[in-house]
Design goal:
The complex is a heterotrimer of chains A (273), B (338) and C (351).
Chain A lengths: L13 E7 L2 E3 L2 E4 L2 E6 L3 E5 L6 H8 L8 E4 L2 E2 L5 H7 E4 L11 H7 L13 H13 L15 H14 L4 E5 L7 H16 L3 E5 L3 H4 L4 E6 L2 E7 L3 H10 L4 E6 L2 E6 L2 H7 L1
Parallel strand pairs in A: 5-10, 5-11, 8-9, 9-10
Antiparallel strand pairs in A: 1-4, 1-6, 2-3, 6-7, 11-12, 13-14
Helix pairs in contact in A: 3-5, 4-5
Chain B lengths: L1 H16 L1 E4 L5 E4 L6 E3 L2 H9 L6 E4 L23 H6 L4 E4 L5 H7 L4 E3 L5 H15 L5 H16 L9 E7 L3 E2 L5 H8 L3 E2 L13 H7 L3 E5 H4 L12 H4 L3 E4 L1 H8 L5 H13 L9 H6 L44
Parallel strand pairs in B: 3-4, 3-5, 5-6, 7-9, 7-10, 10-11
Antiparallel strand pairs in B: 1-2, 7-8
Helix pairs in contact in B: 6-12, 11-12
Chain C lengths: L2 H6 L9 H27 L6 H5 L4 H35 L12 H17 L4 H29 L5 H25 L3 H10 L7 H28 L3 H6 L4 H23 L5 H12 L4 H25 L8 H26 L1
Helix pairs in contact in C: 2-4, 2-13, 4-9, 4-11, 4-12, 4-13, 5-6, 5-7, 5-8, 6-7, 6-11, 9-11, 9-13, 12-13, 12-14, 13-14
């Protein structure tokens, strides 16, 4: 598998699409009416207040939750994709995944190659290369022989991230990928995501770190089960929508070349209003 | 020519002397000559074999066979339920006597060992088994033993004064409580002694009954093994039973229990034990049910004239290994691995 | 290293971690060697001691003892242990619980009920008794074990929900256990027969039993090994496993089938032997870090060795008498786990 992905790899400009009337878990209606198209080759960050339904939306996009409507991957309904092909196109990293304590980090990352491996075949040289690259990207190559259960929270999260990267899927969905990561490693993650997108991949991540979310290409704001706003991160309309989504309790400011979101004290809020 | 004739005669002779024994499982086992090396893994069969005069032919017994005393010197080959296959085969037996419910029989047969499964459960069974053993071991007049048993039981019955007959008795076969019904051979012996069983025949040979039912039945006499008998008086409501108040509760020790549960040649002795229990005056220290109840560790207490508890062998709860009877121990609780 | 370096440069692939792989290989060799040793020792010990082996060439009875009794018994114990170890590894992977054992899905209670019914019908002059006699206790135990698992699957409505499966297994265990208690109340003389079944007994295993177990072990081990990647995927969570494109439902059903058949066969031949299925995967994990594919195979080897050793000890400790092998597996497996826990907590405390 080559590093540089040519745009001709993708057939349809929208990597993911979702049209759904409602998504329920049990009897509770988590998501309402949604019509969404996420373009390929861009990094979209999904933000919103707690309980807005961000994780649910991501799971629906990944095909992990049933919904009243339809999800499309590269223009084709998700249900029509054969599972292994779908797994090669779409990689998922969930939030707070447990288990696999007894495996070594290398084997955990190697699991990301399962969609590429024939059923009883041993891992190929390409598989090992992908694993090594993912380990290097996440700066955990020195931990590859260590048992997952023996690692710290941040190291573990980076190994799991490496597992998602090892799939080398054009579309990567991540739910709270920065849990337990300290700023230097968050910067590593940012670099990997930017590299992926530069090579033509699509990244969708649910983030509650607004500062990191504002580094993305597009921002998708979810509030009370609906899409409140979907637009580029740099635009003022997006910033206003973001502030409104949090009831004005945050303010978006520019620092050097970047946008950051800082909480507003009550005095600042009254002054701004 | 002569040698050839001799061979024919021997072959014919052997053929003539070859015989078949059909065991309790319906399997016909063929013997060319009467077996000289016998292994028995059921105590009642051990005792019967010795009683019919073939004791010298025994080469191995199970760990529970302890009568007559000379069999205790024989090599032990496990229990009835877990026979030690290797030990049995090593003894090169001509026949192995087992209970019908033992699993080792197929394994032994597969190894070429002849197995005869006999399991007496009722008094009529005992007579039949004695006859079968006599036929198997080619012992003349094995029926004499059966007649002696009958005579002994009858003598024990006759030794009872008529006034003591007709008493109502409750025989507790094991904790549970399981009672001995009239269809069991214990029940038959009780009947032969002129006692009335509080348990009716419709309940089966060893029914598990509600203790409250015994309180309502209020027997004149209670018989129990040492394990369950020790705390009989402490059961709720049992303190008021007429048998308990007049101390007409017989608790049999380990040796006596052995005699009672084995349907074999010691049945007359069992009947005598029961008769002794019936005729025993209530104040005798040998029937100290409430006092025994006071002794939490009443086993082996020499003050009551009780024989010392024998050193526990492993899996002592299998001691009444005669599979016809529920063991004199609480049924194992729990469900294994679930 | 700059971003450009990382993304553009071709890394020469570093070799895969050598130490864990070689440890696994060492473990395999070790287990096989010890198993061979156990076979040799098993042929030499028993109630008649070592002389049987020495006299075997000349004495036909000694020869029979060594080849027809001791060898199949040792091999049979190894095979039964291997089946249980395989089933234990599959159970722990399926339920993602290190305390899972092969008897979780009602197989133990089903087997016990079937054995109780078979023993009760044995003496009865009923028409059913004839096919019970043909089936034998081993057949009854096997059918019962499978029946228990089927009942659990019915109750859980399929294989999709692990928690529902576990709960259904517990319920089935209790219900079938209660039915078995009713049977033993109705026919108390089966209790004594059931006792030897419940404690585990390897003493009655002959060459044909070995053949049956081997014929079941090999295909099941291969099937489990081939399906093991679903266990690896599941160890990261159901969502991840699904996202990796693994066909969860069919593979789960396959593995439950492997679990049921392996447990049923082992239980039918050797009775209920606890702890082997629980301890064997832990033994392997304590010595080598491997994914589920090698784990199920290594657990089979470890389980076989464990039960073969327990069988040898059961013959040797109070010779010429024998201890029930289930007691010894609990002692052996339990002591090892206790030692493992002690070592881990000590290591953890010092860290």
């Amino acid at each position: 598998m080559t590093h540089a992905r040519t745009p001709t790899h993708f057939v349809h400009p929208a990597a993911l699409g979702l049209q759904s009337a409602a998504t329920r878990i049990g009897k509770a209606r988590i998501l309402g009416d949604i019509d969404l198209r996420l373009p390929a080759g861009r990094w979209t960050a999904i933000v919103g207040p707690n309980g807005a339904g961000k994780s649910t939306l991501l799971r629906v996009l990944a095909g992990l939750l049933p919904t009243d409507g339809a999800v499309q991957l590269h223009g084709r309904p998700l249900a029509d994709w054969p599972p292994r092909e779908r797994a090669r196109q779409l990689a998922w990293l969930g939030q707070g995944e447990a288990g696999a304590e007894d495996l070594i980090a290398y084997d955990v990352v190697l699991l990301g190659r399962l969609p590429h491996r024939a059923w009883l075949a041993p891992p190929s040289a390409a598989d090992h290369a992908a694993v090594q690259r993912a380990l290097a990207d996440m700066q955990v190559a020195h931990l590859q022989a260590r048992r997952l259960g023996d690692l710290s929270g941040g190291e573990r999260q980076r190994v799991l991230l490496a597992r998602a990267l090892a799939v080398q899927a054009p579309v990567l969905l991540m739910d709270e990928p920065l849990a337990h990561l300290d700023p230097p490693h968050q910067a590593d993650w940012l670099a990997s995501v930017r590299a992926l997108v530069a090579a033509g991949g699509t990244v969708v991540s649910v983030l509650h770190e607004l500062g990191m979310a504002l580094q993305a290409d597009d921002l998708l704001i979810v509030r009370a089960g609906r899409i409140a706003h979907h637009g580029p991160c740099g635009s003022a309309a997006t910033h206003a929508a973001l502030q409104a989504a949090f009831d004005g309790r945050i303010g978006v400011h520019q620092v050097h070349d970047h946008w950051v979101a800082l909480p507003r004290t009550p005095e600042e809020r009254t002054h701004a209003d | 020519m002569k040698r050839w004739l001799c061979a024919v005669l021997i072959a014919v002779g052997l053929g003539v002397h070859a015989y078949e024994v059909v065991d309790d499982r319906g399997v016909a086992v063929r013997f060319d000559t009467p077996p000289q090396r016998v292994v028995s893994v059921l105590p009642s069969l051990t005792e019967t074999t010795c009683a019919i005069g073939a004791c010298a032919r025994l080469v191995g017994v199970d760990r529970y066979s302890n009568w007559p005393p000379e069999v205790q010197k024989l090599p032990q080959v496990g229990g009835g339920l877990d026979p030690a296959i290797e030990a049995i085969v090593a003894l090169k037996p001509d026949v192995v006597l087992m209970a019908t419910s033992s699993r080792g029989a197929e394994r032994l047969r597969a190894l070429g060992v002849k197995v005869v499964a006999l399991e007496p459960k009722t008094g009529a069974d005992v007579k039949r088994v004695i006859g079968k053993l006599g036929q198997l071991l080619a012992v003349p007049d094995a029926g004499r033993v059966a007649r002696d048993i009958e005579a002994g039981v009858a003598a024990a019955a006759q030794s009872l004064p008529p006034a003591l007959r007709g008493q109502r008795v409750y025989f507790e076969a094991s904790a549970g409580p399981h009672a001995a019904g009239p269809q069991s051979f214990i029940g038959e012996m009780l009947h032969a002694l002129g006692l009335v069983n509080v348990v009716g025949p419709e309940l089966g040979p060893f029914p598990k009954i509600n203790p409250e039912w015994v309180v309502r039945a209020d027997p004149d006499l209670i018989m129990a093994g040492e394990r369950s008998g020790g705390e009989i008086a402490r059961r709720p409501g049992w303190g008021n039973l007429r048998a308990v108040r007049s101390q007409r509760v017989c608790v049999f020790n380990a040796q006596e229990v052995d005699i009672l549960v084995r349907p074999g040649p010691r049945m007359p002795e069992a009947a005598r034990l029961m008769a002794a229990c019936i005729t025993r005056p209530p104040e005798s220290p040998a029937a100290p049910s409430p006092r025994r109840g006071d002794n939490a560790g009443g086993r082996g207490d020499p003050g009551h004239g009780v024989l010392a508890w024998p050193a526990p062998r492993p899996f002592e709860h299998e001691r009444a290994c005669c599979a016809a009877l529920s063991v004199f121990a609480p049924p194992p609780s729990g469900r294994g691995q679930g | 290293m700059t971003t450009a370096d990382r993304t553009i440069a071709h890394h020469t692939p570093r070799p895969t971690p050598a130490a864990p792989r070689s440890r696994a290989a060492v473990l395999v060799t070790g287990l096989l060697a010890l198993s061979l040793l156990a076979a040799v020792v098993g042929a030499s010990v028993g109630s008649t001691g070592f002389e049987s082996l020495l006299r075997a060439a000349r004495d036909p009875v000694a020869w029979q003892i060594v080849t027809d009794i001791r060898l199949p018994r040792t091999l049979g114990a190894w095979l039964a242990g291997a089946l249980l170890g395989l089933a234990g590894a599959v159970a722990q992977g399926l339920f993602r619980n290190p305390l899972a054992d092969p008897f979780l899905l009602g197989s133990a209670s089903g087997a016990m009920l079937a054995v109780a019914v078979a023993l009760a019908l044995w003496g009865a002059p009923v028409a059913a008794a004839s096919w019970v006699a043909k089936l034998g206790l081993t057949g009854a135990a096997f059918v019962g074990a499978l029946g228990g698992v089927l009942l659990t699957l019915l109750l859980a409505q399929g294989v999709q929900h692990t928690l529902r499966l576990l709960l259904a297994g517990v319920v089935v265990g209790y219900v079938l256990g209660a039915v078995k208690d009713l049977v033993t109340l109705a026919a108390p003389d089966v209790l004594t027969g059931m006792l030897s079944f419940m404690l585990g007994n390897t003493g009655l295993i002959g060459w044909d039993a070995c053949g049956v177990m081997a014929a079941v072990l090999v295909p099941l081990a291969l099937l489990a090994w081939a399906s093991a990647r679903v266990l690896d995927g599941l160890s990261l969570g159901e969502a991840t496993a699904h996202s990796l494109g693994l066909p969860l439902a069919p593979l789960r059903a396959t593995l439950i089938g492997v679990l049921a058949l392996a447990t049923g066969t082992a239980v039918a031949q050797a009775g209920l032997i606890g702890f082997v299925g629980l301890a064997a995967p832990h033994l392997v994990r304590g010595l080598a870090r491997v994914t589920h594919g090698p784990l199920v195979l290594l657990s089979a080897l470890a389980g076989g060795l464990l039960l073969a050793s327990a069988d040898i000890l059961s013959r040797v400790l109070i010779a010429p008498q024998e201890l029930p092998v289930g007691v010894l597996t609990a002692v052996l497996g339990g002591s090892y786990l206790l030692w493992l826990m002690y070592v881990r907590t000590r290591r953890g405390g010092q860290r």
